[in-house]
Amino acid sequence: MVPNLNDWTIVMVGQWNPAIFSPDWVAQNLLHVENVDAQLAVGPLITNVRYQTDTLLLIPQQDRLIVGSRNTEETTLLDMERCSKAALELLGHTPIRALGINFGFTESDPPTEMLRTFDLADAGALADAGYQVRSADITREIEIGSTVLKLKMGLSDGTVRFHFNFTNQVATAQQAADLLQGRVLEYRNRAVGMLSTVFNLQGEGVA
């Protein structure tokens, strides 16, 4: 099992003003570097600016701010948390309604008992009707106190992918900042622990 770093993010859902996130402002106030690498991602409906350093990335959008980690080191994860808290506190007037902390993992050689999880009740009927299932997803919502864990497992081409989304509903940016304190490592440990104890998987490259 290896981490999927594209999923290692903090997502703050609300009403952001991307114009505030100039390269100089981001470098000085959030990423704490002299110069930041800015990339323009152009899509069919929207254009986003992506800022990144050797360890972090930041993507400001109108409906969310995404801060991601480019490795699994604990120091980087703590920096991801710090950067997100700084944005919430410096822009405390921003309406925020949800905070999500995400992790992803991929298992390219899943054990047989795990594959049986995807033997859904209608698989036989679909096969008898001449249909071949190419992929399957299973999503669960798990309550952990006031936090909801949305755990998605997907099977495709013999590979199982896990996506952990720890979500809290919030009313203000400050509430989100307070909730974020200490949560990134806590939820990373919870995700890795669940993979180990529930699914009998051990992580590679997870600091």
Please give the structural blueprint.
Blueprint: E1 2-3, E2 9-14, H1 23-31, E3 37-42, E4 47-52, E5 56-60, E6 64-69, H2 74-90, E7 96-107, H3 112-115, H4 123-128, E8 135-144, E9 147-156, E10 159-169, H5 173-180, H6 183-197
Antiparallel strand pairs: 1-7, 2-6, 2-7, 3-4, 4-5, 5-6, 7-10, 8-9, 9-10
Helix pairs in contact: 2-5
Write up this protein:
- This protein is of the alpha+beta class and 207 residues long.
- The chain has one domain.
- It is 29% helix and 36% strand.
- The protein has helices spanning 23-31, 74-90, 112-115, 123-128, 173-180, 183-197; strands spanning 2-3, 9-14, 37-42, 47-52, 56-60, 64-69, 96-107, 135-144, 147-156, 159-169.
- α2 (74-90) runs antiparallel to α5 (173-180).
- It is elongated, with a radius of gyration of 19 Å.
- The chain starts with a strand and ends in a 10-residue tail after the last helix.
- 28% of the residues are buried.
* Strand residues, percent: 35-45%
Report the count of strand segments. Answer: 10
Mean of all residue-level pLDDT scores: 91
Shape: elongated
Distance between the termini: 13 Å
Radius of gyration: 19 Å
H/E element string? EEHEEEEHEHHEEEHH
Tally the helices: 6
Q: Summarize this, please?
A:
The protein has 207 residues and is α+β, with helices and mostly antiparallel strands. 29% of the residues lie in helices and 36% in strands.
Write a concise keyword list for the protein shown above.
alpha+beta; 207 residues; ten-stranded antiparallel beta sheet
